[in-house]
Amino acid sequence: MASASQVEEDLATAVAFMQLAIQQAKIAMDSLEVPVGCVIVEDGKVIASGRNRTTETRNATRHAEMEAIDVLLEQWQRTGISVAQVAEKFSNCILYVTCEPCIMCAAALSILGIKKVYYGCANDKFGGCGSILSLHSGSSEHQFSDEGSQRKGFTCTGGILASEAISLLRSFYEQGNPNAPKPHRQPVHQPGN
Ligand SMILES: [Zn+2]
């Protein structure tokens, strides 16, 4: 069992890396994207970062996690490492993301076999790490039938700098998402027209 000081140290580390993820979310915000950001850490070092780019890319799957994962895959593929080595590398990686991974990202992370995920606020609509589905638990409940896509469980801890993550999302939606469909106004019938 971890000692109290060890737990405190882990939490301080998680907060420090989550601050970097928050920075990524702020860059997304500045680019008028839904402000979600992440970093991937290996051996205490950030090896990739990502931010939501769904608007810029006009691709609804370009979530922060997918961006960061692709940075790594590209890097690793360039060095010519094998699929097994890629899996080995992911199994040593920790992801820090400002909002709970959605179902799509949580499934991807479990297929890749990431070691651990820390997230900020919960994702009540699409969360794949406890809110809607629990894809991190690695149970057979949602097991993919494709043998090449065996999912592995990963540890998941939420609530790291959650209020910062929420306030970014809130101010994004309050300032009005310029890319959201415009509300349809009812035609006003004026007397005499
Ligand atoms: Zn996602």
Automatic annotation (TrEMBL):
Keyword set, alphabetical order: Hydrolase, Metal-binding, Zinc
* GO molecular function terms attached to this record: tRNA-specific adenosine-34 deaminase activity; zinc ion binding
Q: Name the source's superkingdom.
A: Eukaryota
Which residues belong to any copy of the CMP/dCMP-type deaminase domain? Answer: 12-140
Alphabetical list of InterPro entries matching this protein: APOBEC/CMP_deaminase_Zn-bd, CMP_dCMP_dom, Cytidine_deaminase-like
Q: Name one GO biological process term.
A: tRNA wobble adenosine to inosine editing
Decide whether keyword Zinc is in the record: yes
**PANTHER family from the UniProt entry:** CYTOSINE DEAMINASE FAMILY MEMBER, TRNA-SPECIFIC ADENOSINE DEAMINASE 2
Protein name per its UniProtKB record: Cytidine and deoxycytidylate deaminase domain
Q: Where does this protein come from, organism-wise?
A: Dillenia turbinata
